[in-house]
Amino acid sequence: MATTERWRVVLRELRDAIRSGEYQPGERLPTVDDLMERYSMTSRPAVQKVLAALASEGLVVTVHRRGSYVREYSPIDWHPGAFEHRTSRRDIEGAGQDAWAADVAAQGRVPRQEIVVETAPAPDSIAARLDLARGTEVAVRRRLRLVDDTPFQTADSYYPLWVAEGTPIMSPGDIAIPGGLMAAAGHPQVRFRDEIVVRMPDPDEQARLSLPPGTPVAEHTRTGFNSSKRPVRVIVTIAPGDRHRIIYEVSGQ
Amino acid sequence: MATTERWRVVLRELRDAIRSGEYQPGERLPTVDDLMERYSMTSRPAVQKVLAALASEGLVVTVHRRGSYVREYSPIDWHPGAFEHRTSRRDIEGAGQDAWAADVAAQGRVPRQEIVVETAPAPDSIAARLDLARGTEVAVRRRLRLVDDTPFQTADSYYPLWVAEGTPIMSPGDIAIPGGLMAAAGHPQVRFRDEIVVRMPDPDEQARLSLPPGTPVAEHTRTGFNSSKRPVRVIVTIAPGDRHRIIYEVSGQ
């Protein structure tokens, strides 16, 4: 079962060395010549095959003429199953902050958000989730979320106008309201349906999030329902794989 | 803000045509010559750039000398937040089946599992989650899960021996026990902690799941706790992005 081709053995050893932290994020790997010597390989193409495999696994990034580097990887834990509660809890650090920002700050990192508010026709997938006719205008809050000044995720929230109009939802900028925006708008949510699709980014996402080649993303779509079971908000979050660990706590009873 | 380079416009149009189903999964796209004519492009490299971008987004697969095909995409909805309950519910189709199989069958698809049971030293990440010393032997149930005879995911369950020994957990093959294996073993779980990491597959995973190049995976790690808050099981599932939509229902209260 186990193959013993030399390059596969070296691939496994280098992968383990990266995962165990022997080579640190951002560190340059030894040159091809050094790797040949260190791992007793006689074939240069075999070493290059190892490096190409590590790159395609997303563990290293190869920079033309400069070498191969261990990908920077200091992800945040993202708690979509919990974060909406936090703004209403006064006992934790960051209560009153935006919920995502509080989650990030609790991990000792520095959150920042760039927010644009507009009204626009709902994309079809959003209209369907909000029980709206195709092309209906909705309020949109588009967020670029940065951690330690690095773009970490985009999160665009869509609201039917019957929910958003005349409420703080339409206010531009980063507004923090204890209890959350939806409660302030008179539509507290009682249930979420989260859908996660894993895919490669499109070129716009790649640019907006400064993604190195070969970085997949989670497209996380949350539909929120009010106590009358009506959908009142959809958030689409694009979360790059190298910057997030997504955590759900599930009650088994 | 919007770029109007011709190839980007064509990329957007072709992407929309694929997402809307105008080009069906498995269908061959028009040839480069046909695309040049259809989209009034004069540059062959520009068309090739469009196709390369679609391939890197995972929307098309290019087969040497044969052309570009829309990637097959008939994913299942996977409900990690719900599936463990199903085997104990007698009112739904498939109760008594393995929980995952019941979930798949309820979607009109045909589930099948290849299962191997063994004892082996726990990988470090598993030992840590199970509160075991490094290298402690654990029971492992390794599953390759197929849908309509296509490999869809691998799911490897790890159990401390104090949980597994002398129970049906150690039985080989696909065992379906109403209420589930863990309850039968005397360790019903009351809480799960799920961690999802999005990454590119390693070559072994790529081979085991027959993944086309450029297909990212979700690595889904579930740790289950019993009523004494002790970890009693870890499942690591590798779910390719092109075969799954991961669904969580979250109570907002």
From TrEMBL, chains A, B:
<dbReference type="Pfam" id="PF07702">
    <property type="entry name" value="UTRA"/>
</dbReference>
<feature type="domain" description="HTH gntR-type">
    <location>
        <begin position="4"/>
        <end position="73"/>
    </location>
</feature>
<dbReference type="Pfam" id="PF00392">
    <property type="entry name" value="GntR"/>
</dbReference>
<dbReference type="InterPro" id="IPR000524">
    <property type="entry name" value="Tscrpt_reg_HTH_GntR"/>
</dbReference>
<dbReference type="InterPro" id="IPR050679">
    <property type="entry name" value="Bact_HTH_transcr_reg"/>
</dbReference>
<dbReference type="InterPro" id="IPR036390">
    <property type="entry name" value="WH_DNA-bd_sf"/>
</dbReference>
<dbReference type="GO" id="GO:0003700">
    <property type="term" value="F:DNA-binding transcription factor activity"/>
</dbReference>
<dbReference type="InterPro" id="IPR011663">
    <property type="entry name" value="UTRA"/>
</dbReference>
<dbReference type="InterPro" id="IPR028978">
    <property type="entry name" value="Chorismate_lyase_/UTRA_dom_sf"/>
</dbReference>
<keyword id="KW-0805">Transcription regulation</keyword>
<dbReference type="InterPro" id="IPR036388">
    <property type="entry name" value="WH-like_DNA-bd_sf"/>
</dbReference>
<dbReference type="GO" id="GO:0003677">
    <property type="term" value="F:DNA binding"/>
</dbReference>
<protein>
    <submittedName>
        <fullName>GntR family transcriptional regulator</fullName>
    </submittedName>
</protein>
<dbReference type="GO" id="GO:0045892">
    <property type="term" value="P:negative regulation of DNA-templated transcription"/>
</dbReference>
<keyword id="KW-0804">Transcription</keyword>
<keyword id="KW-0238">DNA-binding</keyword>
